């Protein structure tokens, strides 16, 4: 007794299944390209302001009495609050402030970085952008500033980010 499938009797099932699979693949291919969608207008460009940066901590020097009361392995000269300061940001586009906010620190204890992601749809052409940030509330004025002259073509996408190690804003 031979055990197996007699493929000669199943040709109708195979042909029907193959036709159904081809129709399904063609339908998916058609729907994947329809409807046509464009996130920006034909003469628009995109500016993105995106960064994660930690604000300053409030620290104070310990007194000699406090240091003497601590075990030797815990004697640090400074003690800092766990919570970080909010980061203040201002963004100007062509001389007008279009965004200003105080970004709270992330995390349950407020010890993480402040995060920002904002999109600005602008018309293509020449633009002047300026970014100002204050990460230390004790400092007078803004601690980091940058200004950029941009020439944006239609559908361009430019991101403004902050590099904490270099202490400056940059474009990419």
Walkthrough of the structure:
16% of the residues lie in helices and 45% in strands. It has helices spanning 11-32, 64-69; strands spanning 44-53, 57-61, 78-84, 87-93, 96-103, 114-123, 125-134, 144-152, 157-163, 168-171. With 172 residues, it is an alpha+beta fold. The radius of gyration is 30 Å and the shape is flat. It has a domain at 44-56 and 84-171: Immunoglobulin-like (Sandwich), CATH 2.60.40. It has two helices and ten strands; from the N terminus they run αββαββββββββ. A four-stranded mixed β-sheet has the order 6-1-9-10, with no helix packed on it.
Short descriptors:
172 residues, 16% helix, Immunoglobulin-like, alpha+beta, 4-stranded antiparallel beta sheet, 4-stranded mixed beta sheet, 2 helices, flat
What's the quick description here?
With 172 residues, the protein is an alpha+beta fold. The protein is built from two helices and ten strands.
Stretches with pLDDT under 50, minimum 5 residues: none
Distance between the termini: 72 Å
Name of the level-1 CATH class of the domain at 44-56 and 84-171: Mainly Beta
- The CATH architecture category of the domain at 44-56 and 84-171 equals Sandwich
**Major sheet characteristics:** 4 strands, mixed
What quaternary form is this?
single chain
Based on Cα principal axes, name the global outline. Answer: flat
Kindly name the structural category. Answer: alpha+beta
């Amino acid at each position: 007794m031979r055990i197996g499938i007699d493929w000669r009797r199943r040709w109708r099932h195979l042909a029907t299944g193959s036709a159904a699979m081809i129709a399904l693949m063609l339908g998916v291919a058609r729907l994947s390209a329809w409807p046509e969608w464009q996130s920006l207008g034909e003469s628009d460009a995109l500016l993105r302001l995106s960064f994660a940066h930690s604000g300053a901590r409030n620290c104070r020097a310990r007194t000699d009495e406090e240091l003497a009361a601590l075990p030797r392995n815990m004697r640090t000269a400074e003690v800092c609050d766990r919570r970080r300061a909010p980061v203040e940001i201002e963004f100007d586009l062509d001389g007008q402030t279009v965004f200003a906010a105080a970004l709270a620190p992330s995390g349950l204890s407020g010890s993480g970085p402040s995060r920002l992601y904002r999109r600005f749809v602008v018309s293509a052409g020449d633009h002047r952008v300026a970014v100002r940030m204050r990460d230390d509330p004790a400092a007078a004025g803004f601690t980091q500033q940058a200004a950029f002259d941009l020439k944006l073509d239609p559908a361009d996408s430019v991101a403004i980010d902050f590099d904490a190690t270099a202490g400056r804003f940059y474009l990419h």
